């Protein structure tokens, strides 16, 4: 199973690189690339770091940290909107 | 053992020694370099003590009350400690990545990624790190099955691939950028790139030291099918370093 996951991650990496050369709005392509990256990160955390098989309480820790980073990102976006 | 007691790991001063070493290292980097070397020595001593104690026998500690131990009571304490450490790492890298996105979106112009960075080299490094994670998984499942040879193969594979990542990054890519005039002083594009990928490289280096320790213990017969928590816990860190690169690669090389 882990070799299959590795293969999927490699294919996703190649897909990211190919997405870059597609025709389309740069912001849309960037969004697609970042979605693929986030998917890869989630797969690594779920399978390689075994979060999928652990007590679900353990997942609270990384999820809380990611939520904190998302709050920071939202604050940054809002501050840009306010011209700060 | 009475039901009021529970088997726990031995308490240790190692984290305090490690923290003091890191403080000396950082102080030395700012004030006086020999202090930084003393810091590295103290960190080394702290790590030695920490891992040496990791192999020591358990002792009986007083069981915590329900409100103190819920909801993490069923979790392995070592693994919980590693995850708490990884939370701090997520916050460090997350903050820096958000700061990078902020300055990039606020800037009027930014160099095109493909003009400053070698996409194929970045992709190769991504695949190298993914493969090193696979090697670490192979090591873990090998020792779970009692296969010491597979453990050594997996660990050495992870180490060699991690080292290859660093050699490509620090030995080829960075010098090429410097020769082309793209340095840490090249405004925000240069400083953000070298700070973020540099911090990541430091983490890969720290991971190599940890994997090197695992290799040493593996060749000393220090792991069995029932006693291999260090392989699993250092593996968690190794995969985290991989995850960080999954974001740095597209942010600097593709977008």
Question: What features would you highlight for this structure?
Answer:
heterodimer; A: about 80 residues; mainly alpha; 3 helices; B: about 260 residues; Four Helix Bundle (Hemerythrin (Met), subunit A); 2 domains; two-stranded antiparallel sheet; 2 strands
Task: Quickly describe the structure.
With 84 residues, chain A is mainly alpha-helical. Chain A contains three helices and no strands. Chain A folds into two domains: 1-53; 55-84.
Could you walk me through the main structural features you see in this protein, from its secondary elements to its overall organization?
- The complex is a heterodimer of chains A (84) and B (255).
- Chain A has 84 residues and is mainly α.
- Chain A contains three helices and no strands.
- In chain A, helix 1 runs antiparallel to helix 2 (26-48).
- By secondary structure, chain B is mainly alpha-helical.
- Chain B folds into two domains: 1-73; 75-254, Four Helix Bundle (Hemerythrin (Met), subunit A) (Up-down Bundle), CATH 1.20.120.
- Helix content of chain B is 76%, strand content 3%.
- The mean pLDDT of chain B is 87.
- The interface between A and B is large, with 39 and 46 residues.
Largest sheet descriptor of chain A:
none
The sequence of SSEs of chain A as H and E is: HHH
**How can the largest sheet of chain B be summarized?**
2 strands, antiparallel
- Which CATH first-tier class of the largest domain in chain B would you pick? Mainly Alpha
- Compute the separation of the termini of chain A in Å: 49 Å
How would you state the average pLDDT of chain A, rounded?
88
Overall geometry of chain B comes to globular
Show the largest interface: A-B, 39 and 46 residues
């Amino acid at each position: 199973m882990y070799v299959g996951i590795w293969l999927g991650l490699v294919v996703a990496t190649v897909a990211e690189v190919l997405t870059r050369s597609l025709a389309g709005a740069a912001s849309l392509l960037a969004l697609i690339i970042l979605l693929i990256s986030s998917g890869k990160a989630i797969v690594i955390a779920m399978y390689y770091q075994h979060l999928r098989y652990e007590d679900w309480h353990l997942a609270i820790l990384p999820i809380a940290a990611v939520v904190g980073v998302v709050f920071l990102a939202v604050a940054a976006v809002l501050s840009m909107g306010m011209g700060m | 053992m009475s039901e009021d007691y529970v088997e726990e790991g031995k308490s240790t001063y190692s984290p305090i020694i490690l923290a003091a070493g890191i403080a000396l290292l950082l102080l030395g980097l700012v004030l006086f370099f020999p202090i930084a070397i003393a810091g590295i020595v103290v960190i080394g001593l702290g790590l030695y003590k920490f891992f040496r104690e990791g192999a020591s026998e358990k002792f009986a500690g007083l069981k915590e009350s329900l409100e103190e131990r819920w909801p993490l009571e069923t979790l392995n304490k070592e693994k919980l400690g590693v995850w708490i450490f990884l939370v701090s790492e997520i916050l460090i890298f997350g903050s820096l990545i958000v700061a990078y996105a902020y300055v990039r979106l606020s800037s009027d112009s930014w160099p095109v990624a493909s003009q400053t960075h070698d996409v194929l080299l970045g992709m190769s490094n991504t695949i190298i790190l993914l493969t090193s994670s696979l090697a670490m998984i192979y090591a873990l499942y090998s020792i779970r099955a009692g296969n010491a040879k597979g453990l050594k193969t997996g660990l050495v594979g992870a180490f060699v691939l991690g080292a290859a990542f660093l050699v490509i990054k620090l030995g080829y890519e960075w010098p090429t950028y410097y020769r082309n005039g793209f340095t840490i002083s090249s405004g925000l594009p240069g400083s953000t790139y070298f700070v973020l990928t540099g911090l990541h490289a430091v983490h890969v280096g720290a991971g190599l030291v940890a994997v090197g320790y695992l290799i040493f213990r593996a060749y000393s017969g220090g792991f069995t099918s029932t006693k291999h928590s260090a392989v699993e816990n250092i593996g968690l860190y190794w995969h985290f370093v991989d995850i960080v690169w999954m974001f740095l690669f597209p942010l600097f090389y593709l977008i």
